[in-house]
Each structure stands twice: as C-alpha cells, then as structure tokens.
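Subject: Ornithine cyclodeaminase structure
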Amino acid sequence: MEPPVKPLKPAELAPSDKALVPFVSVDHMMRLIHHIGVEAMLRDLAGYIEADFRRWELFDKTPRVASHSEVGVIELMPTSDGEAYGFKYVNGHPKNTKEGLQTVTAFGLLADVYTGYPVLLTEMTLLTAMRTAATSAMAAKYLAPKGAHCMAMIGNGAQAEFQTLAMKALLGIDSVRLYDIDSRATEKVARNLAGHGLTVVCCDTAEEAIEGAQILTTCTADKQNATILTDNMVGAGVHINAIGGDCPGKTELHRDIVARAEMFVEYPEQTRIEGELQQMPEDHPFTELWQVVSGSAPGRRDAQQVTLFDSVGFAIEDFSALRFVRDRIRGTEYYTDLDLLADPDDPRDLFGMLMRSV
C-alpha cells in the first residue's frame, strides 16, 4: 500500500518564478501594436533587425526545416546568437483562404542559452507580418532609388497593408498603386489604408500598377512558378521587393529580370531553395544583405541600377522580432505568466514533485 500523500498548503503549490514564462497572446500583441503605433513599431522593429544584420556572423545559421505537402508547408526556423536561442513555427497554405483560414500562422519562443529555460512564448502571425514588412523597408533603405515616393503593391493579401505602411514609415512613400487578380482583395487594402496619409490607386492590371512606381513589391500566394513581372515591364532605376517566392517551385519574376538585376539575398543556402535565385545557375552573382548593412559591400550604386531584394524570410529576422517583444512587454500588461515549466525545489526530485501535488 502506498503511504498517504500529505496535502500541500496553497503557497507550496504555487509555481516558482523559473516555471513562469511570459506569454503574448494575439490579443496582447494587438494591444501592444496599438500602444506603440503601427508605423512606430515597424520603424523600431526595423531597427532591431538592422542591428542583428550588423552582427550577422555571430549567429547560428541553417535553412529552415520544412515539411512540404501537396497543400502547403510547415516549417521550423531556429537560430542563436550564443546568449539567446529562438525559433518560429510557421505554416504556408495558400488554399486556406478559400476555406476561411489564414494562409500563414505562426508562434515563436525565445530561450536563455545559459539555462535552456524559455523566457518568452508569443503569437507570431501578426508579428511575422510586422517583421516581414520591417525587413522589406529596412532593405529598401539601402537599395531603393533616392527620393522614392511611390510603390506598386502587386498581390493584395494579408501582407499588403503592412508592406505599404513600412515603406511609408521608413522611406516616406506617399502613394501606393494596388493590383490583385481578385479585385475584392484590392478593395480591402484600399479600405484599410484610408486615413493613413497615402494616395491609394486601385489598378486593373499589373502593368498599370507599376506606372510611375520606384518600388515594385510582389507578394502573391499561389504555390507555383508564376510570372508576375515580365522583363519589358521593369525599367531602369527601380527597386524590386520580391517577397512572394518562399518555397521550392514558387517564383514571381521572369528569369530575364533576375538575370539583369543586382540581386541581394538574406541567407544564400535558403534563398537557392526557395527564392527567385532558384531559377538561376549556381554561379549567378548576388550580394548578401548583411554585408550591405554592415558596410562591407555596396547597396545601390547609381540611379539607373535595377535592384532586387530576393526576400524569403530568415530566422534571424524572427529572432530580432522576439527580442523586440521581450524588451517591450517588460513592465506592461501585454502578457500573461504561463505555468509552462516543471521546476521542483530539488531538481533531482521531479517524481516527488508530482506525487506531492495530489
């Protein structure tokens, strides 16, 4: 017969501080974004990302771990700077919108390398949209033509408003020209951007959308090799922000554009698998964006140059976003302490902790 278990007093049942992990829910994240301000948060996030790009060489780097299916992809994106470790779980399922679901959902975790204990668990569906837009605008600071004031936004899904407001916040664009094969998506973006100090033009074709634009952003969802922009559509001096290519077999630009543009990438080993770079031979030239940010390589060199940011998203950008959230929630009400970790008084007596809990 097992001995009777002595009941614990309420104080003895309370988890220790080490067991509690700050958890940022979707509601918390929305309140945090409104508290800071959308454009202010995009600027601040871009600052964190830029700072981490300057210390790029310190990070562990690996292409994201992807599980592909016929309907989408599920990925893990890990990295560490030696002091903190972060990862993001993210999916990409273009068919979801037809079923009333998000194409992309995500959550992430930040941990202390010294103990291995998590220090933050957070939603990252909203945060990924914010960090993707912040990364685009941060790159455009170095690559877009001087004085750029108009952007074409081709693909008016969940990213469109974030991308537009990030370019406004960091580069000062004052107009956006919208196009999507689904006019309802374009109407949605125009409606959401009303009152944000932008001239918004809804267009009937991609060709119309790029008229007069110095920044061309492509962000389409179909999981296939597509030609959103053809070579004859792209004139001298523009910056192309290609963010829709994010998995094998999915591209947006005609190969001739990629061949003549000056290409800038995040992590080549991942971009070769997922970005516009997958169309090109192994010896095709490119520059890693971190080299531009750190000053070891040039960005835009002249007014006639066509620059291409072949953005697929990389774990260091998510790490930056996790750092940002960890820092900004301190002393606020925008998180909940989650009893996530078993932390017995005697680390060797996990079983005893279990038995005393009855």
